[in-house]
Amino acid sequence: MSLLQLFIINRSGGLIYNQNLSNNAPSVSTNDWLRLGSTFHSLHAIIAQVAPTKSGGIDKLDTDTFTLRCFQSLSGVKFVVTASPNTPDLEAFLKAVYELYADYVLKVQIVV
Predict the structure, then answer these.
(1) 52 contacts 46 by C-beta, under 8 angstroms
(2) Which of 14, 56, 70, 112 is the most buried (most CB within 10 A)?
(3) Cβ atoms 49, 41 nearer than 8 A
(4) What are the DSSP E strand ranges found in the chain?
């Protein structure tokens, strides 16, 4: 059980950050990462609109070969991780990444 990939998508669907977290992660080109981020953003929005009950979009996806978890912050930034099946505590991992991200963003100062 291991984490495979982490990516962060801004509220308009642009890829902010991506990182392979394991040597077992599939090799993905830069252009494919950009496509992956915008495609996930679009699917997330479509699912939120067409779900038969009130939905915030894709929260998790479990398959035989991988699992995906998504945490969407109040500002609309999505934190997505892929992992091997049955990897525990993915939600806690994403919330920890969000806390680090928020801490970094709040401390960054623009130097003129």
Answers:
(1) no
(2) 70
(3) no
(4) 3-9, 15-20, 60-62, 67-72, 78-83
25 neighbors 91 (Cβ within 8 angstroms): no
Is the pTM of the predicted complex or chain greater than 0.85? yes
Residue 27's pLDDT band (cuts 50, 70, 90): confident
**Residue of 63, 59, 62 lying closest to 94 (CA atoms):** 59
Closest CA to 70 of 83, 56, 80: 80
In tens, the pLDDT along 69-82 reads: 999 999 999 999 99
What is the rounded CA–CA span in Å between residue 47 and residue 95? 22
Q: Which residues contact 45 (CB under 8 A, 6 or more apart)?
A: 57
Both tokens assigned to 82: 């892929």
Length of the chain: 112
Phi, psi torsion values for 24, nearest 5 degrees = -85, -5
Q: Are strands 67-72 and 15-20 parallel, antiparallel or unpaired?
A: unpaired
| C-alpha to C-alpha distance for 53 and 63, rounded to whole angstroms | 23
